[in-house]
Specification:
The complex is a heterodimer of chains A (about 625) and B (about 160).
Chain A: H1 26-38, E1 44-45, H2 50-78, H3 96-102, H4 106-130, E2 132-135, E3 139-144, E4 150-155, E5 161-166, H5 168-172, E6 175-181, E7 189-195, H6 196-210, H7 231-240, H8 259-267, H9 270-289, H10 293-317, E8 320-324, E9 327-332, E10 337-342, E11 349-354, E12 364-369, E13 386-391, H11 393-423, H12 428-455, E14 464-465, E15 482-486, E16 489-494, E17 499-505, E18 511-516, E19 527-531, E20 542-543, H13 546-559, H14 567-583
Antiparallel strand pairs in A: 1-2, 2-3, 3-4, 5-6, 5-10, 6-7, 8-9, 9-10, 11-12, 11-17, 12-13, 14-15, 15-16, 16-17, 18-19, 19-20
Chain B: E1 13-14, H1 20-38, H2 47-73, E2 75-78, E3 82-87, E4 92-98, E5 104-108, H3 111-115, E6 118-124, E7 132-138, H4 139-155
Antiparallel strand pairs in B: 1-2, 2-3, 3-4, 5-6, 6-7
Helix pairs in contact in B: 1-2
Classes of the chains: A alpha+beta (about 625), B alpha+beta (about 160).
Chain lengths: ~625, ~160
């Protein structure tokens, strides 16, 4: 409480949930220092309600079994039927509840259940006692387990993201689950559960340490529990409150989700097509054969579809995305909420996609690829990688506007600055000052290229597409399949029916492959795949002329260069080499000149059309020894 | 096949020709096993059951006969910034992995491969789809290559 000072920290809250006139209560002050206590490097226990929350499912199961077996009796109890007590045949019908009732064993059974509960609660209590965590200046460490002890330590500078989940039950108790995502499968560090308010503080404290600013935490800046006189009121405030951003302000989302659009996007999904097909099949089978068996086969699927729709809609209802000092923050969920923060530099690629049926409305979905795997399930029950479930083109632009500056803008700006420094155009301090602005400028250029590429086809928007003869293999998409370079990124455009546009930042390219199968052997357009992190995902496959290919592969590998000491220097060299190459790329069928005196010399005998005899050997980009 | 992809002026380091023996052996063995399994269909007394076995044997012989050619097609080169690996005759595959992207390098030695004094190298990047293997590298060379690549990867490490 030592660092706490009452001051004009609370901004006006339009919702009026906060009381500006109220003096900070001792409870509030305690809350604001809670995070400091939790991140002071000592071992701490989790929220006292943790055993109940973790064990909640067990209680529900037991209750469910009980209710399921005793439903007759319960019905009888609450709504006495006209025929009085249903005469059980001495337990002969095998109903355990009947058996118990008829043999006077109620006491014994209740005792047994109570003993079981005590044991379970005891185990959960023990596991809570043994489950401790600490946050030091460099690591976060969790110890857990009674018989099998586990100890997981994660470096703060390797954090891929922090997710705060508040399941509905936990929200009632004012608890939250903090999950620290690390790269790799099953590499997350869960802190379940923390007090709701301190979870926000712990997150911002961890992220602050992770970003390298070791400044002493100012307790005022952290978000704190709403001031409230009583526990109930405080809970209610927490429950109603928006997930807090920094400065205790509810973050302003750049995208506002409309219910109508959400419902529309769910209804107009591929899943609906599937459902319609099933319904048609069922109806046809009933009409033609008079048999109802298909109906029973598919009934669970049809019923399950409603849960799919409702989950999809409820999950995205309070969607929000904001840019905070710690990174991009995405909020989900109406009742059970989750709130994820992605620090800068943790996004590996972006994928925009548009199913066919969304096209009339101009809706798009944005997904990202990253190295960690959040345990939050997405609407489709897959690992959640969506950052914009559905949005208009404007929404996409706004979301990308948050992501791109640090994803591709910085790379591009570094390149420019290196170029400028090399030419002696400006001095180092100027560079430092200009960098953020340049990053934004460059990302704006990339963004305009992305916008142009979202719906374009052919060479429109500067994309290199599959040659016409690729039509044999890609009937519809050969004109749309294409790639182009943008400042700091590679844009992959594909899909004529399901439109997609993938943005891969150059520093994130892992490897580039070229494949040529027998069918392509004589036509020179082998499929290409650029590999990015992420489990076994082939980002892009399309047909290209061999020469473009070669260029790309060579280019891609150049992207991997990064000096250990000064990563940006090689980045710049790479970019320069790349631009040079682009400028030496002939428009059509030409031969570019050699450019001597550079690090790389390129010879590009290109015949993109490939029709001229004697030009069977197409473009070759030769990395000369420099 | 004149349009096959290749890099001009590039000197590919070929893997050891000895690698064809374990490859041929394993293909021949699996072919024989499948042929033996198909022999059970002879009990049906149908003419096609014999044809099936014969077909399997012919395919096996063809595959084995092409192994030396396929082994010769496997090559790699250490370029300035990346490791370039090529595989295949009919289905060509080139993969370029920048040194800085390599996460770890495996050296595997099976019993037969070891008897011939060879090693298999496997490179893993952060993308599962871009795992690259170079089989049949002479053991001493494999160790050297691994150390060299680790060194290169270390000096050009790019953060994930």
């Amino acid at each position: 409480m030592s660092g706490w000072q009452p001051g004009p920290v609370q901004p006006p809250d339009p919702a009026g949930r906060r009381r500006l006139d109220q003096q900070p209560s001792p409870r509030r002050a305690a809350a604001s220092t809670a995070a400091l206590d939790l991140t002071d490097g000592e071992w701490h226990r989790l929220h006292p309600a943790t055993p109940l929350l973790k064990g909640g499912i067990v209680f529900v199961v037991i209750l469910g079994i009980f209710v399921n077996n005793a439903r007759e009796q319960l019905l009888q109890f609450f709504i006495p039927g006209p025929d009085g007590h249903r005469g059980g045949g001495g337990g002969d019908d095998g109903d355990p509840v009947d058996y118990v009732l008829n043999h006077g064993l109620i006491g014994l059974v209740l005792l047994g259940i109570a003993a079981l509960l005590v044991v379970i609660i005891g185990i959960f209590y023990l596991s809570w006692r043994m489950n401790t965590f600490r946050v030091t200046a460099e690591t976060v460490e969790v110890r857990s387990g009674i018989v099998f002890r586990t100890n997981r330590r994660a470096r703060l500078d390797r954090i891929q993201g922090i997710n705060i989940q508040r399941p509905i039950l936990a929200r009632v108790f004012g608890a939250a689950k903090l999950e620290i995502n690390q790269a790799g499968h099953d590499a997350n560090v869960p802190l379940a559960y923390l007090r709701s308010a301190s979870a926000d503080e712990v997150r911002s404290e961890i992220l602050r340490r992770a970003s390298g600013t070791r400044e002493a935490a100012n307790p005022q800046t952290g978000s704190v529990g709403q001031p409230g006189t009583g526990v109930i009121e405080q809970r209610l405030n927490e429950f109603l409150a928006e997930p807090l951003g920094e400065d205790g302000q509810p973050p302003q989302s750049v995208v506002h989700m409309h219910l109508g659009r959400l419902i529309g996007s769910a209804v107009l999904s591929g899943f609906t097509l599937f459902m319609v097909a099933i319904v048609v099949a069922v109806v046809v089978s009933i009409v033609t054969t008079g048999q109802y068996f298909l109906l029973f086969v598919f009934l669970p699927t049809i019923l399950g579809s409603f849960s799919y729709y409702s989950r999809r809609i409820v999950k995205s209802l309070r969607y929000s995305i904001t840019s905070t000092r710690d990174g991009i923050r995405i909020g989900w969920g109406l009742l059970s909420t989750s709130n994820e923060t992605l620090p800068p530099g943790r996004i590996h690629s972006i994928r925009l996609s548009q199913p066919l049926m969304w096209r009339p409305f101009g809706w798009w979905e944005v997904k990202i690829n990253r190295a960690s795997h959040s345990s939050t399930k997405g609407a489709d029950n897959q690992a959640n990688t969506t950052i914009l479930p559905v949005g208009s083109k404007d929404d996409v632009v706004r979301v990308l506007g948050l992501i791109l500056p640090e994803l591709v803008g910085l790379t591009a700006a570094d390149v420019q600055i290196e170029d400028g420094l090399a030419r002696g155009e400006f001095s180092a301090p100027e560079v430092v000052a200009a960098q953020p602005q340049r990053a934004v400028e460059e990302s704006t250029r990339t963004l305009s290229l992305i916008e142009a590429g979202m719906t374009s086809a052919g060479s429109e928007g500067g994309f290199t597409t599959s040659p016409r003869r690729g039509q044999v293999l890609r009937w519809f998409s050969w004109r749309r399949n294409g790639f182009r370079t943008a400042p700091g990124a590679l844009l992959l455009r594909k899909g004529a029916i399901w439109r997609q546009l993938v943005v891969v930042p150059l520093p994130r390219l892992q490897s580039v492959g070229v494949r040529q199968g027998p069918s392509c052997g004589d036509c020179g357009w082998p499929p290409r795949a650029a590999h990015r992190p992420g489990a076994d995902r082939r980002q892009h496959r399309s047909d290209r002329s061999a020469g473009r290919h070669r260029l790309l592969r060579d280019r891609g590998s150049r992207c991997g260069r990064r000096g250990a000491g000064r990563p940006d220097a090689s980045l710049a060299r790479r970019r320069r080499a790349w631009r040079r190459r682009r400028s030496s790329e002939p428009a059509a069928g030409g031969v570019s000149g050699r450019r001597a005196g550079h690090r790389r010399t390129l010879v590009l005998p290109v015949d993109p059309s490939g029709r001229r005899a004697g030009h069977r050997r197409r473009a070759l980009a030769l990395p000369a020894t420099g | 096949m004149t349009t096959r992809l290749d890099l001009d002026g590039a000197t590919w380091t070929r893997i050891s020709p000895k690698y064809k023996w374990p490859e041929m052996g394993s293909y021949a063995l699996s072919g024989l096993v499948v042929a033996a399994l198909s022999a059970f269909t002879w009990f049906s007394g149908q003419w096609w059951s014999y044809a099936l076995t014969a077909a399997i044997l012919v395919v096996t012989i063809l595959v084995v006969a092409f192994v030396p050619r396929r082994v010769r097609a496997i090559g790699y080169q250490l370029r300035e910034d990346d490791l370039l690996v090529r595989h295949g005759i009919l289905f060509l595959r080139f993969v370029a992995v920048p040194y800085g992207r390599m996460q770890l390098i495996d050296v595997n030695r099976g019993p037969i491969v070891r008897a011939l004094g060879l090693s298999d190298l496997k490179f893993v990047t952060a993308a599962a789809s871009s795992a690259v293997t170079i089989p049949g590298v002479p053991a001493a060379e494999a160790e050297k290559l691994r150390d060299r690549l680790v060194e290169l990867a270390e000096s050009r490490r790019a953060g994930l």
